Amino acid sequence: MNTALPADIAEFAAVATKRFAGFGGPQAALRAETDDDLRDEARRALTDLGAFDLEVRSDSNDLLAAAVLCQAAGAAALPYPLVEELLAIDGARLTLVNPAAPRIDHGDLPGEWIAADLDGARYLPQPSSRTDAKLGPFLVPATLRGPEGTVPAADIELHLVLGSWRILGAVQRLLDIAAAHVRTRIQFGKPLADFQAVRFAIADASVAVRGLDELAKYTTWRLDSAPTQVRTADALVLRLKAADTARQVLRTAHQLLGALGFCDESDVSVLDRHTQPLIRLPVSTEVLAQRLLPDVRSGRLETLFSVPEHT
Fold it and tell me: Which domain, by its residues, includes 136?
């Protein structure tokens, strides 16, 4: 089975990666924590790429282009709510929240917002000011009015999937940094990469990242053809896998880089802090797993080991 991206999508991904590198990558995201003008520049970079012309809801090619754009944004820790604006409803950015503790990444930016929980209940959020937290430096607490109506299930699925592509980009960048570090860092007279335990750690992280990459492609492809119940489960599984992979790769990167990985001079630290909202929100991985249990028990959740139904 050929899972390579179409040539035009791969080219678009390369252009986006180059544009975000020109913006400054993770270190630009670090500077954006104290310079709001940089978030305006991030949006201009997205506009230059035609991001907001993509019809992610109705065109499968545009959806795949949006996916690789989110992947490139994740690798660069782009300081802008890309997924939320790609899925805007009547000009209002769409964010997923936990109604019990609503928080919005980049919620302090000008413009209207619409919030939804994983069940599709629609809320009107009122973001407050930033808290300057280290983990998720752009997170903003919010109060919710409603629920008032619903958001289509397809929008919730797209939000989960595109957010997972952002996580994928971040973990791929983290793996590259860790692999480069162990090849150049000399310890006891030889590179860290010469130690078997280090090789095993990098290999395990690489397998996890490659698995996430394949699952992201598969899930995005299935959004166009699978029944609603299956699409919802697929999106939840992808987000669960993305969050678990991020934790594994972050743990490996921090272990191998040591204290350097916790300094903002290192892209590992910046990627970690800026990816935390995607890993933790709108709900924890434990809650995501619990939401899948009914489908597991009923047999509606399709896996590699599912038995086809015969009629």
Answer: 93-145
What value does the CA radius of gyration of the chain take, rounded to a whole number of Å? Answer: 19
Q: Do residue 205 and residue 285 come from a single domain?
A: yes
Instruction: Specify the number of domains making up the chain.
Output: 3
- CA 241 to CA 171: how far, in whole Å? 12
3-state secondary structure of 123: strand
**Which residue type, as a one-letter code, is found at position 204?**
D
- 8 A C-beta contact, residue 96 and residue 281: yes
Do 27 and 140 fall into the same domain? Answer: no
Token pair belonging to 78: 């782009």
- Parts of the chain with a pLDDT under 50: 310-311
**CA 9 to CA 190: how far, in whole Å?**
41
| Three-state SS at 40 | helix
Tens-digit pLDDT profile for residues 284-307: 999 999 999 887 777 767 766 666
Regarding whether 33 and 64 lie in a shared domain, the answer is: yes
Is residue 162 domain-shared with residue 284, that is, in the same domain? yes
Q: What is the DSSP string of 193-251?
A: GGSHHHHHHHHHHHHHHHHHHHHHHHHHHHTTTS-HHHHHHHHHHHHHHHHHHHHHHHH
- pLDDT computed for residue 225 by the predictor: 80
Where do the H-state alpha helices sit in the chain? 7-23, 25-32, 37-48, 60-76, 82-86, 153-184, 196-222, 228-257, 267-280, 285-298
Whole-number Å distance between alpha carbons of 64 and 4 = 12
Same domain? For 54 and 191 the reply is: no
270/134 Cα distance (integer angstroms) = 10
Domain CATH for 163: 1.20.140.10
In a domain, residue 305? The reply is no
In a domain, 257, yes or no: yes
Instruction: Output the CA–CA distances (angstroms, integers) from residue 153 to 25, 116, 120, 127, 144, in the order listed.
Output: 33, 10, 6, 24, 20
